[in-house]
Structure formats: structure tokens, C-alpha cells
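The records we work with from here on pair a chain with its fold. Taken together, the C-alpha cells spell out the fold as the letters spell out the chain. To see the layout at work, look at the sequence and C-alpha cells printed below.
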Amino acid sequence: EDGASYHTSAETSHWRKVLNIYWLNWPAHSPDLNQIENVWPLWKRRFRRACRDPKQRPHAWEEVITLARQVWKALLWSQIYQ
């Protein structure tokens, strides 16, 4: 939860009780608990570098998606789980 009014409103609280949805006290920004927080900066850096390379630069949306997937697949598990 980010403290937004629609998360903390009386109506939301009511429906959480009705549906037995419990609020967890979870830090808003917790890279230790969410590995993707550690990966995004690395992925973005590599993706941008690839986009600057004339041989890899995408010119169509499909090429952007393909390049994004290639960069993702090139990440090592040891880099993801730092």
C-alpha cells in the first residue's frame, strides 16, 4: 500500500473486512524483499546501451520488444539475486 486515499478510505476498509483481506505492514520500498528492484537499473542500462548501438537499434515496435527480451535473457541469475 502506498497510503493513497483510495487504499485507506472507509469504504475500502469495509470491503477488506467483508472479504477477509488483511493489510500487511510492508515497507514501501524494499529491494531486499523484491529482487526486481535490484534488476531494473541494470536492465535499463543495458537496454539503453543496446539502443545506442547502430547494429541493434530498434526501428519498429516489434524490434523494441525483441531487444528488450534479448537484454532480459542475457542477465545472469547471479546479477538478479545480488
Summary: The radius of gyration is 19 Å. Residues 5-80 form one domain.
